[in-house]
Amino acid sequence: MGCQWRLDPALGLLLPLQPAEASVICFVSTDDALAWRPWPEDPSTAAAALPMTAADAAASDARQRRAHALAVGAHEAVRGYASWVVAGACAAPLLVREEMGHTGTHVWHAAWAHREWAVGGAPSDLFEGRAVLELGAGAGLLGLSIAARYARAEVTVSDFEGHSKSARGTVLDCLVGNCARNVPLIGGRVRVCELDWARPDEPRALWPDAGVHAVVAADTVVATEVVYTTEGARLLAGAVAACMRRPAGQLYLLNNARRTGVGTFVRACEDQGMLVERLPVPRASSVPLGHSQEASIPMGGIVSTFSPWCSDQDSDEYVFFRVTWSAN
To answer: Name one Pfam family in it (predicted).
Structure first.
């Protein structure tokens, strides 16, 4: 996959030449983009699979960095490279930063399918004028998209500090940053809280009002790719039971069907007095620009890129569940 890029000085981002207008832009920092290597750091561990010698790899890296410096010129405030772009005319795009430190701050293909359903395929009364909670929000694409689409939705995006940590911070740091940078677009209708599924009755507000006890009672709960262990599945069912309003609250979960714990989640919901219905799986009608920043090579002001691992969402089998309270 190859494409050409341009520098947008107003956004401080390197964007593809097409589309000319974007409604959603995910991006990674310049440091993350330039630090990516399409070869092992230790060539001796995978010599047979190396596409080039260690010397060639080092020379390629040096050329890339020189070309990047040439491409951005005197623009010092360059945030980074776009990683996903959704075409669309709007006053200002939704900006979501991904971080390469851990999986929790990546935006995955399932999130795009869930987002497209939420902003275009779902009944609007699921979100408009409703209290919405996203569980395991990660970078926050789904929850922020709902807030941007539905002017009267009150959205809480949540994750857990213990889920994943790195030297640069936690998933929650990334989530707070993405909410803060989109205030001009979403106003004050989004908040961030830490929600430990093992203690769902003790949510902690992080942004914009940090440190206070958060009350989470959602009309509509959404989650994407959050089930991957049996214990986590049980905890998730308990968290949904604690946070979803009775009697009319609903959860919409899109998850890889082959993950460990999917069946456990269904049974745990039933044990909590909830009904689980399997719905047709939503699909993204157009695939956004993939993780093409991963091997970006700027060339004289235009960036030519190659994406080595942009997988198709159809390569995985997904399930889409609606969970409601049982009438009994």
So the answer is: Methyltransf_16
